């Protein structure tokens, strides 16, 4: 089965309604490296560890209202075995409640056919709204690389340009050590892909051990940006986006290099490998 351009562009992805609370907020914070310093009150506020200061890690919007692996539906025409997450972005529109019921709607916003043997790009958007008043909380965007679906006859553009990093040395560096068992925690945010959990599955995919979820690496980069650019004040976290460029092994140190204009990249220190590139962060303007 091949992609039908119009059908995939207008594919009906079910709306998700989800209730969450302090336990889910704390789990997410812990799973992206918050609380590793048990004396840092700024981090503890994002783990539920402080009775008088409870905050929500902004990047949690990536896992709220997640529609699941809907591309595995044969009706999409996509070769689900050759799907790769290419880019991710988030924009925070209002304060994220510590406890709420939300509605999330995901839709395909664009398709690019790169040609036979070169795959295709699928752009998508997820809007998260408070179910009580329909206010927009956050917008998540992403690019999925459909490696097995090029040459289906779709348009060759437009292709979203990548943000170019400055050629100067970064102005800030923030290290986030990952734990050997971190993927086992992160999976409870709603991503039970065995590639990240089962060494037998990882071996079949060509890895000598399970790899960390790409969205966990993204969350670690968000932690770095929250710390460096916002001094752990989530109300100042406006938007971030980046391109996944390599895998991460649990236990590696993620070093996020940040420029004052909001440009950033994240590398796995032990292999000196950039794992998130072409990043751009925006501080939210004061109300």
Describe what this molecule looks like in 3D.
- With 287 residues, this protein is α+β, with helices and mostly antiparallel strands.
- Helix content is 16%, strand content 31%.
- It contains 6 helices and 10 strands; from the N terminus they run αβααβββββαααββββ.
- It has a 10-stranded antiparallel beta sheet with strand order 1-3-4-5-2-7-10-9-8-6.
- Strand 9 and strand 10 form a beta hairpin.
- It is globular and about 55 Å long.
How do the SSEs run, as a string of H and E?
HEHHEEEEEHHHEEEE
User: Major sheet, described briefly?
Assistant: 10 strands, antiparallel
Q: Please report the distance between the alpha carbons of the first and last residues.
A: 50 Å
Treating each run of at least 4 consecutive H or I residues as one helix, how many helices?
6
Shape: globular
| Binned strand content | 25-35%
- Please state the structural category: alpha+beta
The average pLDDT value, as a whole number, equals 96
Give the proportion of residues in helices: 10-25%
Low-confidence stretches: none
As laid out across the biggest beta sheet, the strand order is: 1-3-4-5-2-7-10-9-8-6
| Multimeric organization | single chain
